[in-house]
Amino acid sequence: MRKLYLLYIILLSASFSFAGKYAASFLELGIGARALGMGNAHVALSDDAYGFYWNPSGMAFLNNFQAASMRADLFNSLEQQNFVSAAMPVFGGVTVALSWVRLSVDDIPRYQSEGLLLDASQRYAGNKPLIDESKDSFSASNDAFVLSFAKYQRVMVDLGWQYFEFPIDFGYGVNFKMINESLDQNNGSGVGIDLGVLLKMGLSNVFNDENYGDLMFGLNAQDIAETKITWDTASKRKDTIERNFKFGFAYMQPLNFMNSQLTMAFDLDSRYSGASHLGSELLYDSFLAIRMGSNESKLTIGAGVYLWKFRADYALQGHDLGDSHRVSILFNL
Predict the structure, then answer these.
(1) What is the DSSP letter of 45?
(2) ∠ CA(40), CA(52), CA(187), 5° rounding?
(3) Which of 114, 170, 188, 233 has minimal CB crowding within 10 Å?
(4) Distance, CA of 179 to CA of 156 (rounded, Å)
């Protein structure tokens, strides 16, 4: 009950008192257990149906139709997170994707406002809250509907007549997203845009040695126009989602002697004074993956299994409100 009460306070604060800073913060929880197990370091690794979230340009590298889904009970089941996405290459190196993300909280107890006027030290005596029983309960939900486009392009780089040419693969992407938030009797909505670019370069081509791997760089400019969320309150309150530049790099090193591949990635966000993310993955025989990372200095672990046309991933992330377990499934036609 204490954690639910704390969540109630957070919801009220995030939605009205500090919403200008934390507007639509449900979009910062992450999507896809592979990326989450790697500490959210994925802006340069985005290349599947989860790509709209980490870097829309990564979906330019899809060769087939993909569908992805995730369901998670967060913070000891206080919140429910759901996600589905479908991405399809069409023609001319273009990929189109549709995605939906939802975060919801039910049965939030409603208390007399007098209790909420107490400061944090007055609300509790030990583990017992110093407020009356709740009058009733209400719900909160957050939804994002996203339409994505990505375009693939290969550029040949000529190092001069005495050297050779080698390819660099580029992906460009854009998200158009509609955000709806609901808290008790009030609703807010807004439309935002993300822009992304991803670069892949095979060092085996540069050094003419197959023992080298691939180097990737990624940039995702989220809410490039600073998305506005307008609430249906009497004052028509507007909250702003701050612009965020998420950039990073990754390197995939083949380990041919053990039929494996080691991937290392690093991301940095401009939002919140530069949140950093570090992740690694060891993939054995294109079948079993183990992962570890650091998400803003919090340890993350994960694993993945590749079976036929499916990939199932699991991730564990720690949080002050409780650990979160996430399981996601990717289908690759």
Answers:
(1) T
(2) 95
(3) 114
(4) 40
The stretches of 56-116 forming alpha helices (DSSP H) are 113-116
| Mean pLDDT computed over 237-253 | 94
Q: Over the chain, what is the mean pLDDT?
A: 87
pLDDT classification of 13: cutoffs 50, 70, 90 = very low
What is the predicted pLDDT for the residue at 120?
A: 59
Q: Worst-scoring range by mean pLDDT, 23-27, 64-68, 242-246, 299-303?
A: 23-27
Q: What is the DSSP letter of 123?
A: H
Strands (E), 207-297: 214-222, 228-231, 238-240, 244-255, 260-269, 276-284, 288-295
Helix (H) or strand (E) holding 71: strand 66-74
The full 3-state SS of 248-261, as one line of letters, equals EEEEEEEEHHHCEE
Express each pLDDT in 246-287 by its tens digit: 999 999 999 999 999 999 999 999 987 788 999 999 999 999
How many Å apart are CA 146 and CA 49, to the nearest integer?
12
| Residue 313 pLDDT exceeds 70 | yes
Residue with tokens 């005495």: 162
Residue 121's pLDDT is 61
DSSP readout, 125-170?
ETTEESSPPPSEEEEEEEEEEEEEEEEEEEEEEE--TTS-EEEEEE
Check if the beta carbon of residue 83 is closer than 8 Å to that of residue 109: no
Residue with tokens 């609430």: 231
- Give which of 332, 278, 327, 333 is closest to 304, Cα–Cα: 327
Give the integer Cα–Cα distance in Å for 25 and 36: 16
Q: How far apart are CA 143 and CA 188, in angstroms?
A: 10
* 237/241 Cα distance (integer angstroms): 13
Structure tokens at 113: 């406002």
User: Are 198 and 215 in contact, with CB atoms under 8 Å apart?
Assistant: no
Structure letter (DSSP) for residue 13: I
Dihedral in degrees, nearest 10, Cα atoms 37, 39, 45, 48: 40
